[in-house]
Amino acid sequence: MRTTEEAEGFDGEASNTSMISGASSPYQPTTEPVLSRNVLGGIRCDMEYLKSYFGILKVVEVVLSLIGFICIETIMMCSPCGGVYFFEFVSCSCFVVTGVLLLIFCLKLHTKVPQFNWSLPDLVNTASSTFFFFLSSLVLAFINHKTGAEIAAVIFGFLVTGVYGVNTFLAVRRWRRGNGCQGANQTSEYMRARTASRGEMEARPELA
């Protein structure tokens, strides 16, 4: 009987010891579910931007640039080809750059880098696209072979030039407005700090 009681006592002590060691162990089992990370979960299409003036203008610019590029690509023979190659390069470049900016603003990727002023590259792109599209369309209008593809490319080139011009005007106005607000905020902060420092000087007791 003593042997049985001693064995039961040893079993109880062993179970208590294992429970204490398990409670004090830093490696505790967990039942929390492991959530899978969704990398693209935070990317959403900004429909408000697409409905805004800048979004609509960018969509029109991308479409017209693509149509102009397709028209100029249908030309099989040309002599001289300087105007055709120049228009081809401009339409393709503007289509790619404007399309990338459209994706950045539409998917709100620019909010991932808030330190960068995204209005400036947008302004540079619209202004340069306006100039080069106008120049390439003008060159192609004077140097062409009166084919339907060249005439269509010239028409779409001048159309997209007008759209880029409107976008440039709005981008310049937005950029000036942003700089004006920033300057006003800096001025107000400076005046507030100066007023606070002047109040501290007045509140300081005079030295005898």
Automatic annotation (TrEMBL):
GO CC terms of this entry: membrane
Keywords assigned: Membrane, Transmembrane, Transmembrane helix
Signal peptide: none
Protein's name according to its UniProt entry: MARVEL domain-containing protein
Coiled coil regions in record: none
Region (Disordered): 1-32
TM spans (from-to): 53-77, 83-107, 127-145, 151-172
